[in-house]
Amino acid sequence: MALYLTESEVTELLSPAEAVQAIEACFQRMARGSVENAPRRRLRLDHGFLADMAAADVELGYSGVKSYAAFPTGARFMVLLFRADRPELAAVLEADQLGALRTGAASAVAAKYLAKPDTKTLGVIGCGHQARTQVACMRAAVPGLERVVAYCRTPESLASFCADTGAEAAESAAEAAAQDVVVTVTTSRDPVLRGDWLQPGTLVCAVGANTRRARELDDVVVDRAAFVCCDSLEQARIESGDLVEPVEHGVLDWLEVHELSEVVGGELAGRQSAEDIVLFKSNGLAAWDVAAAAATLYRALLAGRGREV
Q1: Most buried of 5, 58, 114, 284, CB within 10 angstroms?
Q2: This model's pTM is above 0.85
Q3: Cβ proximity of 86 and 105 under 8 Å
Q4: In whole angstroms, what is the distance from residue 273 CA to residue 189 CA?
Q5: Residue 305 Cα distances to 9, 96, 97, 174, angstroms
Q6: Residues 98, 293: contact at Cβ < 8 Å?
Q7: How far apart are the C-alpha atoms of 278 and 226, rounded to whole Å?
Q8: CA-CA distance, 195 to 114, in Å (whole number)?
Q9: pLDDT tens string for the chain (309 positions)?
Q10: Residue 125: is it exposed, middle or buried by C-beta count within 10 angstroms (0-12/13-18/19+)?
């Protein structure tokens, strides 16, 4: 029998700190070559799309599929978690919060390994659901974080976000960009972050855009970056407009783009200097969904939560 976990149960069971721990361990297993990840596919629907993405993490003991239907009115996310050693469905999870947590946790892992040592401030451009977990996970992973500065175009959304997270409201995107770590987490199809705004030593985590037709960064961000990495080169070549277009413009070469797992696994140093501008392009991996789902299932079994289906 599989265990069914609702959105509210996932939220109660998996904390930001636990999500960061699960995703960091996932990157370590990726570095060891024990994870196989299939890039996202999108199928057209009437005014929306159906997406699926899958991963097998034999070392963890699980494989899984995340699928979701997305429309202008909203989206519904589900994860099916299977045992890796036998034909058994272990869990079915409602996965909106799970996806937000694993995405925030990936940025937090990037900050742990790539932010300059004396990082104290975080700038966030975008004030939606995903932005909230970015802040929560960053706070869990970066103990010295003292200040969060946020900006979005809608004053009401910005006020609500600041009230919920304790962030300070910026008057412009440039003000949010003048921080030690800058996260872009928007639905914009056009750049919201300009390289001219960045201070020496900044880590940029670009999270929001994951299609070739959307960009959050201008070419100057990429050009100024001393080190560029992503979550998966295979997936980035398919859906990362923030990297594909700079490559097409001659600003970047794919040979200069690394994977964050290489840094987490110790193969690469990543940042060479406190003055370096560093870029992490996050598209979102099924391997993270499997890792976060497995961590949630473990806690659910300990707590006696969920229902059998």
Answers
A1: 5
A2: yes
A3: no
A4: 32
A5: 7, 18, 17, 45
A6: yes
A7: 6
A8: 18
A9: 899 999 999 999 999 999 999 999 999 999 999 999 999 999 999 999 999 999 999 999 999 999 999 999 999 999 999 999 999 999 999 999 999 999 999 999 999 999 999 999 999 999 999 999 999 999 999 999 999 999 999 999 999 999 999 999 999 999 999 999 999 999 999 999 999 999 999 999 999 988 889 999 999 999 999 999 999 999 999 999 999 999 999 999 999 999 999 999 999 999 999 999 999 999 999 999 999 999 999 999 999 999 999
A10: buried
The two tokens of residue 210 are: 């994951």
Of residues 66, 112, 116, 281, which has the active-site annotation? 66
Q: Token pair of 67, please? A: 């699928």
First to last CA, the chain: 6
For residues 203 and 43, give the distance between their C-alpha atoms in angstroms, rounded to a whole number: 34
Q: Which ranges in 124-249 belong to alpha helices (H)?
A: 129-141, 155-165, 173-177, 219-224, 233-239, 241-248
Confirm if 25 and 292 have CB atoms less than 8 A apart.
no
Which residues face 83 on adjacent strands?
62
C-alpha count within 13 angstroms, C-beta hemisphere, residue 251: 18
Helix (H) or strand (E) holding 31: helix 16-31
Tell me the DSSP string of 160-193.
HHHHHH-PEEPSSHHHHHSSSEEEE----SS--B
Instruction: Indicate if 66 belongs to the active site.
Output: yes
